Amino acid sequence: MIRWPVPVSVLLAALWLPPASARTLEPATLPGMCVTIDPVEGSVSRPCDGSAAQRLALPETGPGPMRLGDACLAPRGGGNYPPLVPLRCDGSPGQSWTISADHVVRNGEGRCLALLALSARDGARVYAAPCPARYPPQAWRIRAFDSLGYAPTRGRLRWAPRPDLCLSLVRPGTFIGLEPCAEVHRWEQVFSFDRRGPGQFRMSGTCLSGNAGSGGLALRRCRVNPEMHWLLEEGGALSNGASHCIEPRLTNGRWVAALTLCAAIREQRWTFEEMAPP
After folding, report:
1. Alpha helix (H) ranges present in 192-235?
2. pLDDT at 106
3. What is the band of 4 on the pLDDT scale with cuts at 50, 70, 90?
4. Which helix (H) or strand (E) holds 177?
5. Rounded CA gap, 15 and 5, in Å?
6. Phi and psi at residue 93, to the nearest 5°
7. In angstroms, rounded to a whole number, what is the distance separating the alpha carbons of residues 138 and 124?
8. Confidence band of 246 (pLDDT split at 50, 70, 90)
9. Taking Cα atoms as reference points, which of 195, 247, 181 lies closest to residue 217?
10. CB 88 within 8 A of CB 54
11. CA angle 48, 237, 186 (to 5 degrees)
C-alpha cells in the first residue's frame, strides 16, 4: 500500500476554489460516483458527497493541470495501476492533462484515467495506465461541483407487508428476492444510492437491474439505462426509469422480486433502514 499524507493545506485550498472552476469527475457509466483523493490510497472512486477531496479544478481547453487545491494530480508509482496523488506543481507531462471531445482524460505521458474493472464498489482504484490501443479508453462525466447536491447513503430495504423480510441477493443463485433481515447487516442486503433523486442502486461492485422481458431483477455491470435508474419514492415504492415497481411474489416456495406496473398498493412499499457510516 502506498502511503503519503495529503496536507491539510491542500484540502483547505480545495474548499476555496472559485465555484465556476470547481468540478467533479464521474465514470460515464457510474453517475454519482466521484474521483476522490484518499489520504492513504490516492485516487479512488467513492459516492459523490460534496467533500473537498472530490473538488477538482480541470483544464478547460488544451493541456493543463488537474488540481486539488494548490497541488497538481499525477500518477505515482510503478505497475499497471498507479493512482493519482497530489504533488507540487511542476508543469511536467505527467501533470499535464487534456479532456477530449469524447470525454477521455489523458496526460502528456500517454496515460488515460480509468476505473479498475469499472466497478461500482466504494473505494475501487482510479488509476492512470498507458492508454489502450485495441479498445476505446474509459469516458468520464464532468460536472460542476455542488457541496449540497448529494445525499449518499447505504442500507437495506424491508418489505412493508413483512418487515422481517429484506430485499436480497439470494444465494446460491443470481436472482433478487426476499430473505430474512439479518441481525447484522449482510452485504447481500445492503444497497448504496443517493437519496436526493433517481439513480443507481449499487451492491458489491454491480447495480440493481430490471429485466422488462422476464419481469425479474438481477445484479449486472453498471451502465446508464432506465432499467438501472431507481427512485425510492416518499410513499415507499421503489420504481425504475421504465415506470415499473418492485413487487415480491411467492414462487415455488421462494420470494422472488418481480417488476410490475406501479400501483398504490402495500405490496410495492418498502422501508429503508440506513446503516451507520463505516
Report:
1. none
2. 97
3. very low
4. strand 176-180
5. 18
6. -55, -35
7. 15
8. very high
9. 247
10. no
11. 60
pLDDT digits (tens, 9 = 90+) for 178-208: 999 988 889 999 999 999 889 999 999 999 9
* pTM as predicted: 0.87
Average pLDDT in the 229-256 region?
Answer: 94
pLDDT tens per residue across span 78-112 = 778 999 999 999 999 999 999 999 999 999 999 99
Q: Under a CB-based contact definition with an 8 Å cutoff, are residues 46 and 35 in contact?
A: no
Instruction: Assign a CATH topology to domain 8-144.
Output: Trefoil (Acidic Fibroblast Growth Factor, subunit A) (2.80.10)
Task: State how far the alpha carbon of 1 is from the alpha carbons of 4, 38, 72, 125, in Å.
Answer: 10, 12, 21, 12
Query: Class assignment of domain 152-274?
Result: mainly beta
- Please tell me if the domain spanning 8-144 has the same topology as the one spanning 152-274: yes
What percentage of the chain has pLDDT greater than the value 90? 78
Please answer whether residues 151 and 196 qualify as being in contact, where contact means their C-beta atoms are separated by less than 8 angstroms: yes
Distance between CA atoms of 158 and 248, rounded to whole angstroms?
11
Q: Where are the domains of the chain?
A: 8-144, 152-274
- Give me 121's grid cell: 464498489
* Beta sheet of 140-144, edge-to-edge order: 84-87, 71-75, 67-68, 56-57, 22-27, 140-144
Positive or negative: CA dihedral 13, 14, 17, 21: positive
CA separation for the pair 52, 96 (Å, rounded): 21
Hey, which bits of 17-161 come out as E strands?
22-27, 33-38, 42-47, 56-57, 67-68, 71-75, 84-87, 97-99, 105-107, 111-115, 124-130, 140-144, 152-159
CA–CA distance from 12 to each of 6, 67, 126, 263 (Å)?
11, 13, 23, 48
> According to the model, what pLDDT value does residue 7 have?
52
Q: Is-contact 259 246, C-beta < 8 A?
A: yes
